[in-house]
């Protein structure tokens, strides 16, 4: 069974179209490409595997939210908690129906490492068309990515082939550019090295930002793509929790 849902909607609209499928033989990347979604979650419970149109991912935050919204919908229950095995790690995911519609899902992302940026950062900044703003870090919940504060994420027009090469050279998944506005972070996630030039919503990077800031944050993405999204992320200094609302089609 194959389902496409909208993960991490904002005010009931937008979100990232995400495929959820029972695990099956065949080319999973091709299945994702044919669905029109950027990511797919393939279920062989308790194992969940994630793919883009070009590669398998170690994990996928908004794919996790999508998968457990579908599982709750299939169960007919108002709420459930399950353990998911992905990328060599087991973690709990909770899903609950919302009175106003949609399904809210939270998962424990686990610890996030924060490190200084690598040598060769100029490759990334050049591909983004910006100078060094300072405050750049590498954050990793398992796969490293850059967190880059910028004055206006909407103004960026990356050179995606150049950015893909730079990210591969430095062993990075991609980069989250963001601007803080009180409790909200306006952000864009670029990951052409894994076949996703720009992500509508990236839950794991949102958790990384909360870990870096040391506080709760709501990350708004997708506006540049006409698919506004929102991810909630919180930290207690030891681990991070990430959540969002999934709309079933």
TrEMBL record:
Molecular function terms, GO-annotated: catalytic activity
Superkingdom of origin: Bacteria
Identification of the protein by name: Phenazine biosynthesis protein PhzF family
Organism expressing this protein natively: Actinoplanes philippinensis
Lineage: Bacteria, Bacillati, Actinomycetota, Actinomycetes, Micromonosporales
């Amino acid at each position: 069974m194959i389902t496409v849902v909208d993960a991490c909607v904002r005010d009931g609209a937008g979100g990232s179209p995400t495929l959820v499928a029972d695990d099956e033989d065949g080319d999973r990347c091709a299945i994702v490409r044919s669905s029109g979604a950027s990511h797919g979650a393939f279920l062989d419970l308790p194992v969940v595997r994630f793919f883009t149109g070009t590669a398998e991912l170690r994990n996928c935050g908004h794919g996790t939210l999508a998968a457990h919204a579908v599982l709750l919908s299939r169960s007919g229950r108002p709420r459930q908690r399950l353990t998911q095995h992905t990328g060599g790690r087991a973690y709990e995911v909770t899903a609950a129906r919302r009175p106003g519609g949609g399904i809210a899902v939270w998962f424990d992302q686990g610890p996030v490492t924060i490190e200084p940026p690598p040598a060769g950062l100029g490759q990334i900044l050049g591909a983004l068309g910006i100078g060094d703003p300072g405050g750049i870090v590498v954050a990793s919940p398992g796969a490293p990515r850059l967190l880059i504060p910028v004055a206006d994420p909407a103004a960026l027009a990356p050179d995606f082939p150049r950015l893909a090469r730079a990210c591969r050279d430095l062993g990075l998944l991609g980069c989250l550019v963001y601007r803080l506005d009180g409790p909200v972070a306006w952000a864009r996630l670029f990951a052409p090295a894994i076949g996703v030039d720009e992500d509508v919503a990236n839950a794991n990077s949102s958790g990384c930002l909360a870990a870096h800031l040391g506080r709760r944050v709501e990350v708004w993405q997708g506006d540049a793509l006409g698919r506004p999204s929102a991810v909630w992320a919180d930290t207690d200094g030891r681990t991070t929790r990430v959540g969002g609302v999934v709309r079933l089609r």
